[in-house]
Amino acid sequence: MAKALFDRAVAMIGLVVLSPLLVIVCALVWLQDLRSPFYVALRAARGGGSFRMVKIRSMVSHADRIGSNSTSADDPRVTRIGRFVRNWKIDELSQLWNVLKGDMSLVGPRPQVLEEVDTYSDTEKALLTVRPGITDFASIVFADEGAILAGAVDPYQTYVRLIRPWKSRLGLFYVQHRTFLVDLRLIQLTVLRIVAPRRALAGVCRLLEGLGAPEDLVRVAGRNAALDSQGLPGSA
Predict the structure, then answer these.
(1) Each residue's pLDDT tens digit, 173-190
(2) How far apart are CA 118 and CA 210, in angstroms?
(3) d(CA 234, CA 139)
């Protein structure tokens, strides 16, 4: 209850304070092709079911119908304004509306497309026991996901092989160790990730170490180890 009240209070304040920026960005997105500046998509909700997640559109209209769910930095579907919006994570700010509605939390595993959730292992299904969030450990560690996928012949398969196992492990670790103080620290590190990436990653590593995370998870969080297709604990 306290987390939900905090989330909604921050979301309301954030929407009011950021409204001038959001209006300007939405106007620029609309002017580039006279299409809606918002991308509304179904995402898996806590406990099953779905909700409509709102993002500021950074790709061409109906991009989800003409390409993969995973987006590389060199994806031709991303618009010129969209690259700016993505680089500064402005596209995520509209999700404060979802937080205000109660669909999402400020901090929690990132919401996933329904098709992705259908492939979850029994271990990964624990990610659905909490509200999805705007940010979490994985959002900070893989803020450069597009750059990792750049040049891949099949960005989605590369994502599944190199990124998803670690994202899931980081998400599961959050589910097991979430507290109000952890949430506050992750919000702070999310902002820091935009202006000082290495410091933010170092902060994530210290937080994980303090919570007793496995060494391999800490190394990957600091981007001090090569990504590989290591599976989830308990998976085949």
Answers:
(1) 999 999 999 999 999 999
(2) 33
(3) 23
